[in-house]
Every structure is written in structure tokens, then in C-alpha cells.
Amino acid sequence: MISIPLGVFDWSIMIVYFAFIVWIGFYLKKFTKTDDDFFLAGRRNSMWVCGIAFMSANMGSMEVIGYAGQSVKYGLYAAHFYLIGAVPAMLFLGVFMMPFYYHSKIKSIPGYLKARFNESSRVFNAGMFVVNMILVSGIALYLQALIFHTFLGWNWDLSIWFSAIFVALYVTLSGLLSAMFTEILQFFLIWAGILILPILGLADIGGPAEISANLSEGFKTLWSSSGSPADNPMYITWGGLVLGLGFAIAFGYWTTDFLIIQRAFSARDLRSARMTPIIGSYFKLLLGAVVVSTGMIALVLINNPSSGFNLLIENGKTNYDSVLPLLMQRYFTPGLIGVGVTSMVAMFMAGMAGNMSSFNAVWTYDIYHSVINKNASPKKLLQIGRIATIAGIVLSVAGAYIARSMPTVIDYLQAISSMFLSPSVAIIILGMFWKFITPQGGLWGMLIGTAAAVTLFILQELKIIPISFVIPDFSGVEAQSYMAANFWRAVWAWLISVGIAILVSFFTKNKTDEELRGFVKGLIDKNESEQKEKVIIYKKPEFWAAITLVIFIIINILLW
Amino acid sequence: MDANKGIKSIWFFVGLILLSIGLIVFAAGIYDLINPSPYNTRLKHFHTNIWWGAVIAFTGLIYTVKNRNKYITK
Fold first, then answer.
1. Is A310 helix (H, G, I), strand (E, B) or coil?
2. Predicted confidence (pLDDT) per residue in A167-209, tens digit
3. Are the Cβ atoms of B21 and A44 closer than 8 angstroms?
4. In the list A238, A292, A431, B7, which could disulfide-bond B72, CB 3.0-4.6 Å?
5. DSSP one-letter code for A6
6. Which residues pair with A317 in a beta bridge?
7. 3-state secondary structure string across A334-400
8. Residues 335-374 of A with CB under 8 A from B
């Protein structure tokens, strides 16, 4: 355990932050009168509010602290999580998928599955989402408490309960509205805490040229060392990166994970909803630059023994998540330490509030209202949403204690998400763009795809099959790559879901065109197309998406 | 804050929190200049807390002033 010294100024910053969050929760409560206000923030938000909240919900502690650690482990390969693992899927969501989601006035992603397929698809998907959310929240809560305990010396139980109760308080008060408001505040605080780190780091090591001079080829390129798994630190080929990370996992997360898409649903109009992930993509690129460069600066420092910098080693294992706190300890003076610690707290709060606001919406609409009480009044739904938030937090705390007892929780995280999200994205995209897919086809595709992914994971964990079983480009590399296995398992789950959905659709009855209107490409309302034509070019989401795409291509070529 | 006018703009709150935190960081930097902290922080001579605190506070001031009368309505 190491200790970051907190002085009066640093504590003052944390107190100001907590006071603001509670004040905003109470201030917004008087504007939260209906279930629409609570679950969709009243559909009144601008594209900037939605875009920043969208990104903030993604900027949890795992995405920032975790990926800074991954940059030390994998070098520039960690940037793939911000490039091919994010940008194409975010743009696809904004340009092609959002009109279907927004126009259908659904309140959740399972809601879309009900409208496009049937009630069973909705309940199955909602059940998977709820389980996934509790597991992910539990692990996030555990990691956050671990950081407080390791770097600030705070009591473990106190860290977990204080964080959980605090999020429960402000999400229960006004649901998505306060979650989004605080996410935006947290977004700015996170930047205030992390933006300065690579600047100081570069000044310390002597400039960007030092990164290139001190790292081997596999650690400082994106694609040129991806021909063989033996040539790069992630032990993966370009095929695994493109199909697994870029397609199955990224599209699963960015286009169907209700946690982030819920922010776009709160937009005041379709254009704002479509711009939400596109605005998010610019911040995602900036975040990738900051996080990955910080990790690579740490790598240069570690490779230079005279720097005196080393990661934390616990029980003989390197703690990669210690990169960010240790660099803050190295460079941050009084006051800045407060901003740094507050930004780490904000990362957790933003992620956790996102988890809880999406959990309460899916539980209330897609399980409670759909299965338990079909005649519930809007007032009752609002009440259930608040109760669900508290129940979700309590379950997450239980999940955190379970995660504490596991040896390597972070390894399971990508695996959990890939198993639950990949079959959903396969069916949603297939159903959205091909009206041939029947309700039974969609349901069975999702069921068998998920079952196949879970079975492969369990067999791998029980060591009945080797990790290399799911990796087609595994060419005898001794080191076992969990990451590559996760990517490829997601690809197989995707393919199985698609195959089963198509096969079952040949033999089962489909809905009529009228029933599918608004939910499938080619069956969108005429008013919608007319509305699209009136917008001038620089206000079109396609225009801004094209600019991100060009930046994305240039970065990939420059760092090839 | 009048409930009838709608919700106060989020950018106003962003401004307020950045202004408050920026001022504390700036004050910490000035105090550190007078009474240097005993910790062996790298690049201490950059006095990052002074200028970074000023940047955060200035950003917060712009947001607060520009959005003090803006409200979100349905």
C-alpha cells in the first residue's frame, strides 16, 4: 500500500464536489414529477448535454484508470480500445441506428426488441442486461474501493458503503436527470484531473520523441506488428482486432448497451439524438490520446531505472491500475492532488450513476411493467424506479464483496460484457436492417448465441478446453491471451446468433409491414425522410461523422 | 431559482464548480509558494497548481457569467 498525502486544500476540493452533487440532486427533485422525467430526463436535452453525458457514462474508473494500466501492459495497442474499438461503432449508431431507436419512442433497448420482435425477446434481453449491470457495477464498486484503500489508506468497507449510498441518494432523488447533470459536472472534473498528467509527464521524460526512442516496435505501432500474435504485446492479429474488438464487442457496447444509449433517448429531437454519439466520438479520441500517452509515459519511466518510477507490486503481481494514482503522486502538488483524487472519485460516480439509471429503467419498464404489473400507473412506475435504484445499489455492494473474493476480476469483465452484449447486437442490427428476420428467429438467435458464449467461457474456465480453442489465428504463441479469447468468443457468439436467427426465420411466421413500420430500414415514416432533407449540410450528423472518420483514418495511418 | 422558469442551465453549475475548485487550487499554489510542502514532487518548480488552478477558475468564470440567466424548458 502506498499513500497519497491529502492536505487542507485537497480535502476542501473533495468537500466542494460532494456538496455540489447533493445540492443538485435536491434542486432537480422538484422538476422530477413523471416517470418520463425520471427515466428519460423529460426528453428536453440539447445535443451537447446528451453527447457529454453519453461520454461521461463511458468514462468510468475502469475506462480511464484501467486503460492507463492497459497502455503500460500493451503499449499503443491499448489505443485500439479508443479507435477501432469505439469510433466506427459510435458513428454507425449516430448515422444509421439512432433514427430507429429515437423515432420508435421506446424507453429502453429491450423496448425496441419488443416492438421489432416480441415480448419474450424483450424479457430475455432485459434479464441479461440486469444481470450484466449488477456484475459490472459490483466489479466497478470493488475496484473503486480498492483504489481508495490502496492509495488513500481508506477503510475498505467504508469506501464501498460511502460510495454506494452517495450514488443511491442522488439517483433516487431525480433519476436520469440528476445522473446526467452530475455526469456533466464529473466530465469536466475528470478532464481537470487528467489532462495535465501527459503534459507534465512529457516535460519530465523530455518530449514525445523519447517515447518513440525508448519503446520497441510492438509497443509503439497500431497495425504493422499485427501480422502475427508473436509480434505484439496483446498476442493478437489484425483479424481478431477488426472482427472481435472492432465489430462484435464495440458494436455490442456502443450500439446496444442501454447504459450509454439512454442519454441519447433524452434528447429533445432526432438530430440531437443522432449527434449524441458523434459528439461523444470526438471526446473519445481525445480521451484515448490522454490515457494512452499517460500509460506510455509511465512505460518509458519504468524502462529507465534512474527515473525511480515503478508500478505497485502486490503478492508478486504487478498492479497495472496503479499507473494513474502513482503518476499523480509523482507530479501533483497540493491542490492538484485534490483535483486528481476528486477526478478519480468522479469517474466512479459517473459510471455508477450510469449503471443505476439504466438498471432502474430496464427493471421498471421491461421487467416490472412488462411481466409483474402490466397495469401500473405512471406514479407507481416512478416509485418502482426509485426502489429499483436502491435495490440495484444493494445488489452491487453484494457483487463488490463477491468480486473481492475473486483472484483476477478484471479478466472477467471483458468476458462478461462480450457474452451478454454480442448476441444482442447481432439480433438488433440484423432485425433493424433486414425485415426477413421473424420474432422467433430473433429470440432463438439471441438465446442460442448467449448460451454458446457462456458455455465456451465456462468450458475455458474449467480448463476443459484451452484458451486457444476459440482463437483461429493462434499460431503456437506460448503466452495465453485472455484478451484475444474474449474478442474471438464474441465473434463466434455473433455468428451463431446470426446463423440461428436466419435459419429459424425460414420456418416461422413474420410480422406484417404495418407492424414493422418505424422499426426496420425501408419502413420508416415519410415525415421522417422529409424532415431529414430540410437540414443544411453543416448541421447534418453525417457531416460531423465524416470528419471524425477522416481523423480516425489519419490517426491509424500515422501510427500504423 | 424559480421553478416556473424551468431548470437552471447545466452549464451554470459547471461554471460554479470549476470556479470554486479552480480558486482553491490557485490558493493552494500561492500557499505552496510561501510555505513549500515537504513532499518531493517532481517538476515542483513548474508551480502547476498556480497556473492550472487559474485555467480551471477562468474557464469556470466564463461558464458562470455566460449562463447565469439561462434555463432549460420542455
1. coil
2. 788 777 767 777 788 888 889 998 999 999 999 999 999 888 8
3. no
4. B7
5. -
6. A314
7. CCHHHHHHHHHHHHHHHHHHHHHHHHHHHHHHHHHHHHHCCCCCHHHHHHHHHHHHHHHHHHHHHHH
8. 335-336, 338-339, 342
